[in-house]
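Here is an idea for our session: we take a single protein and study its fold together. To get us started, please write out a protein record for me. Once you have written the record down, we can walk along the chain together.
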Amino acid sequence: MDAILLQILNGLDKGSAYAMIALGLTLIFGTLGVVNFAHGALFMLGAFCAVSIDKLFSMEMVALSATETTAWGTPLEIRTLYVEAWFGDFGQWLNEWSVLVSILLAIPFMLLVGLVMERGLIRHFYKRPHADQILVTFGLAIVLQEIIKAFFGANPIPQPAPDALSGMADFGAAVGMQAGAVVYPMWRLVYFLFAAAVIGAVFSFLQFTTFGMVVRAGMADRETVGLLGINIDRRFTMMFGLAACVAGLAGVMYTPILSPDYHLGMDFLVLSFVVVVVGGMGSLPGAVAAGFLLGILQSFASMNEVKQLLPGIDQIIIYLVAVVILLTRPRGLLGRKGVMEA
């Protein structure tokens, strides 16, 4: 039972990232009909927002001590963070919680990136074949990837979690099991709760606001909504920005779990598209459900007992599930009838 619970937690951790990226992909495909292969790059840009803020808050001023010397007789260097010198204890708090501060700055940045991407490039490919959309967005992803590589280098950049959330949580004791039976990194639990909050906020926005209701109506019948005098194109552009924000926030919070590098977006992109296909193209609930389902399956496939029985199964389990789904239910688990079906 302990091992099963631990693997479920691992699956929810991976599934949270899959679900958030797949949710953004599905929002774009469902509203604009665009297959966006640059969406993984948006996840990467969010991660490097956190890297940039951490580097900014970690900048130090160096002064030479007038009284203290090193073992070689030279004046001792005294290093002080700029934010601590400027803001005192609040500056120290900013440095400690830079990941969470990055969220506030990543939201407007990713919204701007999404709007510029949609208005400057994607809008010209709405009526083009999906193959053209894939080629141009994949090319954009490579360009963004190389820009990040040029500025930040090719090596992963470790990002620490705040000290208060960097330890282990006794999850077993919290659910009534023996103390110490199931301990789990606290930040991974925070990431799952954060993903659940973001996903819930997106669904609530689409379900309970007038803007969201119009968008859902436009996803179902764009032409009719346009005939009512509603500028549905402008609303869909905002949805592209929202999808970019979701991907960026997923990247920001994932940095303490996996050190970001320039090909982080590509690593998640393919898996996220598989999640979208399994859940159903254009189905928001399907994308979220498939993200968590495939994350849990991948976690169980990573168990040593399973890998000894079926070597390499953890690397291909997601693709095997996708093949089975496409053969038996081409529209996906929760996809609309007629979508991706002959």
Observations:
- The radius of gyration is 23 Å.
- The beta strands are 60-69, 75-81, 168-170, 183-185.
